Amino acid sequence: MNTINVVAAVIKHKDKIFATQRGYGEFKGGWEFPGGKVESGEEPEAALIREIQEELNTEIKVHDMIGTIEYDYPTFHLRMSCYWCSVVSGQLELLEHEAARWLGRDELYSVSWLPADWQVLGEIEGEM
Ligand SMILES: Nc1nc2c([nH]c(=O)n2[C@H]2C[C@H](O)[C@@H](COP(=O)(O)OP(=O)(O)OP(=O)(O)O)O2)c(=O)[nH]1
């Protein structure tokens, strides 16, 4: 099965994190951390900065890695590294997503996350 390498931004502000709802494709309607595929030869942190600029018109700073999810979807294997991030400049405009929410610790499980994402929520919850 082919593996896709994805990076995801867990953008934190005060005690909330930013979740987005996919606006298109196979997983439309599911909630995720914004990000996307790492291009060949690209450093993960640079890929994440690029993706957030493209999707949200916002410059971020990438902090520590939270963890790497490994998940088998029916047609591909996902390897997704998640990083704590903060906004440097920009307004988190939804250029590709359907909706977004700032979630507090007690609201973390209140959206329909993509299947792979559940793996990392415990880690995030523990560090919020
Ligand atoms: N960005 C992101 N993708 C996730 C998450 N959870 C999860 O299973 N995925 C999956 C969905 C997609 O199959 C894949 C990410 O691909 P993508 O479509 O966002 O990547 P991209 O922006 O480079 O996309 P494209 O140009 O190919 O449309 O990872 C998540 O929290 N964030």
Automatic annotation (TrEMBL):
Domain Nudix hydrolase, residue spans: 1-127
Q: Which reaction does it catalyse?
A: 8-oxo-dGTP + H2O = 8-oxo-dGMP + diphosphate + H(+)
Q: Which UniProt keywords apply?
A: DNA damage, DNA repair, DNA replication, Hydrolase, Magnesium, Metal-binding, Mutator protein
Which CDD domains does this entry report, sorted A to Z?
NUDIX_MutT_NudA_like (cd03425)
Transmembrane segments annotated in the record for this chain: none
E.C. designation(s): 3.6.1.55
- Tell me a Gene Ontology molecular-function term this record carries: 8-oxo-7,8-dihydroguanosine triphosphate pyrophosphatase activity
Against InterPro entries, the record matches this protein to: MutT-like (IPR047127), Nudix_hydrolase (IPR020476), NUDIX_hydrolase-like_dom_sf (IPR015797), NUDIX_hydrolase_CS (IPR020084), NUDIX_hydrolase_dom (IPR000086)
Any one Pfam family match given in the protein's UniProt record, by short name: NUDIX
Where does the source fall among the domains of life? Bacteria
Required cofactors, per record? Mg(2+)
UniProt GO BP: DNA repair; DNA replication
**Family recorded in the similarity comment:** Belongs to the Nudix hydrolase family.
The protein here is known as: 8-oxo-dGTP diphosphatase
Protein's organism: Enterocloster lavalensis
